[in-house]
Amino acid sequence: MKTRAAVLTEMGRPRPYTHSRPLTIEEVELDAPGPGEVLVRMRAAGLCHSDLSVINGDRPRPMPMIIGHEGAGEVAEVGAGVRDLRPGDHVVTAFVPCCGSCEPCTSGRPALCEPGFKANSTGTLLGGAQRMRRAGGIVNHHLGVSAFAEHAITVRQSLIKVDDSLPFDEAAVFGCAVMTGVGAVTNTVQPHRGSSIAVIGLGGVGLAALLGTRLTEASAVIACDLSEEKLALARSMGATHTINAGDPKALEQIRDLTRGGVHYAFEMAGSVKAMELAYAATRRGGTTVTAGLSNPKHLFSIPHVGIVAEERTIKGSYLGSCDPARDIPRYVELYRAGRLPIDRLLSEHIALDQLNEGFDRLSDGLTVRQIVTL
């Protein structure tokens, strides 16, 4: 079948994207779903820094590619062997397809699935298939999803069924922002009662992490960002304190508020400067968690002795250390119960042909979560 999609043919085009137009809306050809695969009619997809990092070249991927990984839609057709989904079912995408049989999967860490990582790195579906073409040849898949399209082919392992009463725009953010942000808090570290927490970087993932702190019994939650608008939003979403990260005294303020530093700091901006602030803001014996994806060439350095003498912990968090099949339904229920108001993350709704402008706004830090409605 033919469908409209946003195709990225070249990474690293200059800003503003409104002028350089790295994404072009084209008609592409999709194969019918093969065994274990599903054709999804995409209905909503969020703009995330992980997409931006492919556009700007920070995360090299094979070109051309249909990007987008945070999506929601409805099943249009299922391939052979898919028995637990049927046309009309509503689904959320998960950007790590979990094979279920590699060592990380069998040890309860499906976010680190080894075949899933290989497929995501090489632009294929889990198992190596490529199901998209345009004039000139194959088009690569982005993280097994390619959500910036009216239709997408995925494997069954990339989809989580959700209740059809959940609006598509809200459902989409569970696929990345909520899993990554909330999961970093509730899965990666699980802060202890009475702990102090700092969240550095208040994009969609950072604000989701802030919401995740509401599920803890933290005594203080400090939100840090360069944007006063986002800091105001963070205050309305439960932050006990907000600090502009550009203030030369930002670190001093965090240490003063917490008598020496926070127990847990979450770096969600994907920058070395943000990571440096997060680490410096963490107290002796504390834990610094990063879920930000910076350019692979950017290095973060610390005095080795501090890790030992201060018993520091640095942890990475990918996909919020989630098991999507377990955690997405759990987070949806918390949302319905009023304990995880993820609808506060939604900012603008845009059309498919407004993606370039949308990524300019995202790159400038002017928005939280823009949603493409399809």
Short description:
This protein is of the alpha/beta class. The chain is built from 12 helices and 18 strands.
Task: Walk me through the structure.
This protein is an alpha/beta fold and 374 residues long. It has two domains: 2-165 and 341-373, Medium-chain alcohol dehydrogenases, catalytic domain (Quinone Oxidoreductase, Chain A, domain 1, Alpha-Beta Complex), CATH 3.90.180.10; 178-317, NAD(P)-binding Rossmann-like Domain (Rossmann fold, 3-Layer(aba) Sandwich). Helix content is 30%, strand content 27%. The chain is built from twelve helices and 18 strands. The strands form three sheets. Strands 3, 5, 6, 9, 10, 17 and 18 form a seven-stranded mixed sheet that branches. Strands 13-12-11-14-15-16 form a six-stranded parallel sheet, with helices on both faces. A five-stranded mixed beta barrel has the order 1-2-7-8-4. α5 (168-189) crosses α6 (204-213) and α5 (168-189) packs across α11. The model has no long low-confidence stretch (mean pLDDT 97).
Shape: globular
User: Structural class of the secondary structure composition?
Assistant: alpha/beta
Please give the CATH architecture of the largest domain: Alpha-Beta Complex
CATH superfamily of the largest domain: Medium-chain alcohol dehydrogenases, catalytic domain
- By DSSP, the count of extended strands is 18
Strand fraction: 25-35%
Number of spatially distinct domains:
2
Q: Which spans of ≥5 residues are poorly predicted at pLDDT below 50?
A: none
What is the rounded distance between the termini?
A: 17 Å
Portion in helices:
25-40%
Spell out the helices and strands N to C. Answer: EHEEHEEEHHEEEEHEHEHEHEHEHEHEHE
Largest sheet: 7 strands, mixed
CATH class of the largest domain: Alpha Beta
CATH fold category name of the largest domain: Quinone Oxidoreductase, Chain A, domain 1
The radius of gyration is: 20 Å
